[in-house]
Design goal:
eight-stranded antiparallel beta barrel; mainly beta; 382 residues; eight-stranded antiparallel β-barrel; 55% strand
Length: 382
């Protein structure tokens, strides 16, 4: 968890903005476990992409230590960024451009000038050349022109003076469409990050000092209840026989999460959640009427409750200015047989007020199977 700084009432910390530039050489890798993808194209075509990299420009800012958001973590930085991504197979993958939000903070201040930091990026990437399943220069990696962009990095930040800093570290990147189009094993990158940051305004690190100021014991004893509703669309492959069939169109997903969360410290919450999800593509095998190809396959509509699953999960949440990152691991205890599995969740919450938030998340099954997006709204009962 980030070692955030707190400032005394007499400290004067103004608004501080920054402009950053960095380069990120990387090595791409992907997954080809899905047999429906193996049958579509020559896998070696996609495996030829073995070099990648990106160039980033970021505008960031830090809140004043006297503001409501700044009291959470005044030395955190957040903002918006854009990047041009260079893939080793531009004819097959394109040269996508990313637009994203980011946030970072020191994990540990090694000295007055050097800190160990983390930073995440989350947004969308545009301009991919999607797989069409026909041409040899296509690929087995992405199935849509627009894909989500997710990045997590860590490294060292060196403050040269009050206005210039250098950053160097490692990062992991994932591009995918959230199972809204096929194929979708996604693009995964592991690489380095090297950059420079120019800051404007007073430096909060000069006036700040490390003070561990936990929330009041009364608030920590009382749980906060998060109610989240979400929806999404997804693709589905039907596996009723020997050959899987990619079903036409999209299927709707809707869910409800009820999570009592305890505030362990200023920047960390933990708790449990009861998770309810309806998936229009669930339990199709029992309701297959006819057809052995995407052109003639037919199903009867399953009963509503045959497409609902209920799970219990444990949750952990990093609370920062504006954004919170919530992760969870759970198991579906009620529902059709195909849903009886462990599931993993990653959610980014964007605070609209003290109680309302936007939720952007993704769910996996058994740590490997891509399931669905989770796009919705939430309310926190204090």
């Amino acid at each position: 968890m980030a070692a955030c700084l707190t400032v005394s009432a007499s400290d004067s910390i103004g608004w501080r903005s920054s402009l950053g530039f960095d380069v990120r050489p990387a090595y791409p890798f992907s997954s080809y476990r899905d047999d429906i993808l193996i049958n579509m194209l020559d896998v070696e075509n996609a495996r030829n992409s073995r070099l990648a990299g990106s160039i980033h420009i970021q505008y960031g800012f830090s809140f004043s230590g006297k503001s409501g958001q700044g009291r959470i973590c005044p030395d955190a930085w957040q903002g918006i960024g854009t990047a041009v991504n260079f893939m080793g197979n531009p004819k097959g993958l394109g040269t996508p451009v990313s637009l994203y939000a980011f946030q970072g903070a020191p994990i540990w201040n090694l000295s007055d000038r050097v800190s160990l930091y983390y930073e995440w990026n989350f947004g969308a990437s545009f301009g991919w050349k999607p797989c069409d399943g026909k041409t040899g220069r296509s690929n087995l990696i992405v199935g849509s022109r627009v894909n989500a962009y997710i990045n997590l990095g860590a490294g060292l930040r060196f403050r040269l003076d009050d206005h210039y800093s250098l950053m160097a570290g490692i990062d992991l990147t994932h591009y995918s469409n959230g199972n809204t189009s096929y194929p979708n094993p996604g693009v995964n990158l592991v690489g380095l990050r090297m950059g420079v940051i120019r800051s404007f305004g007073p430096d909060p690190m000069v006036a700040a000092r490390i003070i561990h100021t936990p929330d009041s014991s009364e608030r920590r004893r009382r749980p906060e209840f998060d109610l989240t509703v979400y929806g999404a669309l997804r693709k589905r492959a039907y596996r009723g026989g020997d050959n899987p069939i990619l079903l036409p169109g999209h299927f709707a997903v809707a869910g409800l999460d009820i999570a009592p969360m305890w505030r362990i410290s200023r920047n960390f919450r933990a708790g449990t959640s009861a998770d309810f999800q309806w998936d229009e593509s669930t339990d199709l095998k029992r309701h297959h009427i006819a057809g052995e190809s995407a052109e003639d396959i037919r199903f009867s509509r399953p009963p509503f409750f045959r497409q609902v699953c209920v799970g219990l999960s444990g949750r952990a949440e990093l609370v920062m200015p504006i954004f919170s990152v919530n992760v969870g691991i759970g198991y579906n205890v009620i529902g059709p047989e195909e849903t009886r599995a462990s599931y993993q969740l990653a959610n980014l919450k964007v605070r609209l007020s003290d109680v309302f938030f936007l939720n952007v998340g993704y769910q996996l099954l058994n740590f490997q199977k891509q399931n669905n997006l989770m796009l919705g709204l939430g309310y926190t009962f204090m």
